[in-house]
Design goal:
Elements lengths: L1 H32 L8 H11 L1 H22 L2 H7 L4 H43 L11 E3 L4 E8 L5 E10 L6 E14 L5 E13 L7 E12 L15 H5 L4 H27 L12 H24 L9 H18 L13
Antiparallel strand pairs: 1-2, 2-3, 3-4, 4-5, 5-6
Amino acid sequence: MFGETAKTWLIITAVLVFLTLGIGLSRFIGDAAAGEVPVNTVATLAALSVVSNLDIVMPISVLLAIMLVVGRLCRDNEMAALMAGGVGLGVIYRPFLTLAAMIALFAGTMSIVVAPHAQREMNRLGAQTAANAVQSVTPGRFASFDNGRVSFYAASRDDQKQLHNVFVRVVQPQEGPDRQTIVTAKTARQSINKQHAVTLVLSDGWRYEGVPGQADYRIIHFDKHGVRLSPPSAVKDDDYDAKSTLTLMRSDDGKAISKWQTRISVPLSIFILALIALPIGRVPPRAGRYGRVIVGILFFVVYLNFVRLSGQAIQSGLLPPVIGEWWVHIVVLAIAIVLIARENGWPRRPKRKVAA
């Protein structure tokens, strides 16, 4: 049963990871087409997004794998044969729980250690994207930077990464109507200094500066002109997804507490879902092995939503950290224990005395 369950789990996990990767690729390909990320980082960002989503993929894959195997055993009367032969529930459940413990250890490592590192890597790539903003522009499309303050367009790019027929619009906020600078140039290239400040060096063009609707525009022709773009933004201090679990555990902030409890909830939920998959996965003999799958998925969705709602309650101060997300796991574990106990004949009904 261990081998069959492991094989089923691998297939389900591969399918879910493939779907997650496809969603990530479609998202980042769209961003690349819009000029928001470089094309050469799309695959890396999609792969890192898969790591961030394993906290959902791992628990649901374990639940479905065990339910499918238990359903097959019941359908083929193998479960009934095992129990009729005197095999106890502990022996039957042992391979399922052993696999669940191994997967929980792996998922816990991914959630507690690897996922924050993956988020930091995504942030680093994002910072590089900001630093190479102009290089990520798709020729023939308008792009905006610095929260819309800078609009940019280039008709083409040559092999030396030099842009041709460039249009730049920079908005300078001020009291009253914003002052605007419009620059057109035949060519442009990007320059980055040691402070990671990005400067667009334009050649042979015109600069128009003024306030729309007013007549005091300045018009200047130049051979070379630099337009300073904002430096890449650093990783924000409140990016809890990128912080290590140990750092979060040292914080008294509600969001930090919620985040590290959610990370620890991943391996806990895997083991609890493995327990509850055994009783709810049982189906009548000759019934379809997929009969209870929808029930399992709905149960997982409710479980996951209660965990996330508890995390939000911690952040807003409505739920003390000592209760936190733990109460959800305790309730689900209690439900699993009750269902397993019922399978084992508890509570046992007293035998009726036969009248003489």
